[in-house]
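Homework help thread (please don't just give me the answer)

Our assignment gives two proteins as sequence + structure token strings and asks us to describe the second one. The first is just a warm-up. Here they are:
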Amino acid sequence: MRILLAHPLCTVVHGSWQDLVEHVPAVDHSITDPPYTEHVHGSIRSLDLIGGIRIKKWEPGFAPLEGFAHWQWQLSITRAWALNFCALEQMGDYKDAALGFRSEGGYYVRSWIWRKGQAAPQLSGNCPANSCEGIAVAHAKGGRMRWNGRGKHAWWDGGVEEIADGSSLDNVVFSNRDRLEKRHPNQKPAALCDDLISKFTQPGDLIGDWFCGSGAIAARSLVLGRRAIACDADEGWATFTAERCARILAGDLSREPKKL
């Protein structure tokens, strides 16, 4: 474990969530995007346009994650909301790992949906394409649930975030162009991060992102007046996150998507 950024408002660590178990006693909220299981990783295909059109196995560049020890640890240290992106097929497993629904004395609240704005088609053509990801939502035991969405439905739409120079810092489209530019393969759009942070947290709250990737959750938390702890097992992405957050802390928002 190595601390790449240490600031009163933000800490970024190169390491795994297990490295933080003895060092993070509590956070107000956990909002994170863990790797999927080996089965989900192995079933995803992409369209390769380099050297001819062909279908190839999707290579995310990071290892799959088995089990839900990370989720149970999050629930043990989170004072209020815990949100984890997941495959739709995993939602029941997240509920079971949280020891049932809230009404039964467990942590789990419900399963919500993010619809990808430009999801890949089903390349084989033998069944409908998967256009959504799940968001497993839990809450600490004994705490009063509070959010700022009032009666909003549990449904989020996602699109591409354009910034001033015409590039896309947070782009939900994972294409060959994105790979060549070394964007994270599982980035979430800034507008989605903003909405989740604004609706589930309060200014000044401490938000933990235990699989931070390109740092969208941590960065947007700082932009919106929250504090953040972020870690990633990949040194390159942890460094990217630290540099991104350091720019924001220095007042440089030139590379951040603009909130309309």
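The one we have to describe:
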Amino acid sequence: MDSALTNAAGMMNELARMKRLVHLLAAEGRLREKENQPAEAARSYVDALRYGNGMSRGGFLITRLVGIACEAIGYAPLAKLAPKLNPDEARAVPRDLEKLDAGHVTWAEVKQSERRFMRYQMRKYLSYVPEDPFSGQPLVYRAQGTNWLLYSVGPDGVDDGGKPVGRGLGGKGDLYFDSPW
């Protein structure tokens, strides 16, 4: 999580590598099926599910979505294989799936990680207030209930309390961050 906070591009590359690993687990399962080792194949597919879920822990929404995609890489062949397992081989599969379900990554965990990321981003990008080009001081920021107002004092250099600047070059008032002036 900490490295993902500071290196989003690296995180995306890491997710791609993790997904490739899950494809390798699924390929191992297919190989075991061809070698007539269905129990070993099922284990490889369950490993893909376990890895997809585990990689999501502590991650962001995108991490969970990639984790779900990785789980699907294991689920599909496991569902096709399950009817071919003999009773002894099949006993382990539901037990493993129940363990996975008991420890699955919840959306509440993902939401908590997203909040942590947003707080980090807010601290990073709002650690200072940009300078007002007309006054040389920080831009004016005023909370207004649940909303806020960010503005420049404008060309006249006077803080008019957030009153919008009038039209034309001689207009008095303040410039909003989204002002068309």
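TA reply:
I won't write it for you, but here's a hint about the kind of observation we're looking for: Residues 8-34 form the longest helix (27 residues).
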